[in-house]
Amino acid sequence: MSATPSSFSDSAPASSGDAGAPVAVQATPAFSPLYQQIKVLMLQSLQSGEWKPSAAIPSEIELATRFKVSQGTVRKAIDELAAENLLVRRQGKGTFVATHAEHHVQYRFLKLIPDNGDPNSEGPAQRRIIDCKRCRASADVARALALRAGDAVLQVRRVLSFAGVPTILEDLWLPAAPFKGLTAERLTDYDGPMYALFETEFGVRMVRAEEKLRAVLPETEQCELLKIAPQTPLLSVERIAYTYNDAPMEMRRGLYLTNTHYYRNALN
Amino acid sequence: MSATPSSFSDSAPASSGDAGAPVAVQATPAFSPLYQQIKVLMLQSLQSGEWKPSAAIPSEIELATRFKVSQGTVRKAIDELAAENLLVRRQGKGTFVATHAEHHVQYRFLKLIPDNGDPNSEGPAQRRIIDCKRCRASADVARALALRAGDAVLQVRRVLSFAGVPTILEDLWLPAAPFKGLTAERLTDYDGPMYALFETEFGVRMVRAEEKLRAVLPETEQCELLKIAPQTPLLSVERIAYTYNDAPMEMRRGLYLTNTHYYRNALN
DNA sequence: CAGTGGTCTAGACCACTGG
DNA sequence: CAGTGGTCTAGACCACTGC
Questions:
Q1: A114 Rama class: left (phi>0) / alpha (psi -120 to 50) / beta
Q2: pLDDT tens, A29-65?
Q3: Domains of chain A
Q4: Is the pLDDT of residue A190 over 80?
Q5: A35 touches strand D (CB under 7 A)
Q6: How far is A264 from chain B (nearest CA, A)?
């Protein structure tokens, strides 16, 4: 390495000392370590589709020569991307783009667990799509998805059952543009997590999500769909899921029956 | 470095398989990288109290010479401990033992947030200790705390209010032995998070926790304490908190009013 | 066996903190 | 200014995978 590691990004040196005036605040000196810059480049490769879900990315040595840095530096970049669940390292095999399919746990973002604590004990959930229609975004949905109120969105409603017992009622909203062509039929026919379908069919990869939980009482229509008595308390889970660049791509509201299941959370 | 890095640690393999049988599974070849071994040593220093909460630990160079490894190796050990929130790195100053006190966020484990999303907007919670008594562990509590049913435990009940509105009703159980001398008065007088008091007064540091969430309806006594109407749905939060070595040290059951607050969770 | 990620080292230099 | 954590390098070697 002969080139200076600081890369571009610093045009005029700002003549730090200057004189005369207080020169305002000069917030961040905008120093970014090399591995962070490389992380950004790798994120672009992910986002652009150069590296596709479940595929292997180039080896560390290859990336090191491509970016003209040492192996240790790309390693640190990969480490961070792996910590964010964007990449998966497999010793002896390579580094792979994370995916919602083939992920040993069926639903990575679903934290509802049967009382015995073992998500595998009851087998895969039965999914029933109730509705999938195109409509206009309400103010709430628009805000969540960073759209304008009235923009076209897709609304999906479904019920998940475990061991034949309806347990989750979900409504979800998607921006219409990226999901053009999504129908109830495709949702029903697809065998696997919905987010896996989004990856393979629409090229939209959900990277992280935030949930807001509340205890609520159901409305009568919801009682019918879940086949429960009125006044049964339900766990309301409102989720916003993000793709790369923190762009919101899904808003979802689930009602969870917590008689035989619970929402598990780990605090660190 | 002259010594082999693999260290001791493999005396009698516990003869897990027992006799006659097919020799069992021979799980791990028991290879442990150097930095993991050092991490264990550092954990011992934390657990033994050699390094106290909020104090600085020795510098990386100092630790490197003490453990006779390179700085990079202790660095990796510290990195992991920092990722687990056991240590806090501060560039230019040193590495410090994490603590529940002086942590800019008042309650590190409390995920209930006001609707506006800003935990600071309503100031500190008002705490009212209702009860603190010594009693015998029920089967549930005993299992959670790894005790025997009937063992002595302390039971605390309290109410947290925000802006004068009762919002959280909590019952919590502690093993009596480590918390000998805990009284309602000390709980009331102490100004700061309860876990901070546990650190300074009893040398018990809570390291992580697991929560199980459900939606429930309150009993009449609970309605009175929270000053709510019957049939108000509440978020039930059952927590088990662990100290070092994954030893459970607290079982807690909270009832959260989610009219003006929500439980926030981030999924990665 | 070759190729991949994982560990470890030694040393140079940078950025931040505080006296 | 000295001391701390943070970055970066180059190279050696180890552990794991699959052919």
A1: beta
A2: 678 999 999 999 999 999 999 999 999 999 999 999 9
A3: 5-97 (1.10.10.10), 109-263 (3.40.1410.10)
A4: yes
A5: yes
A6: 5
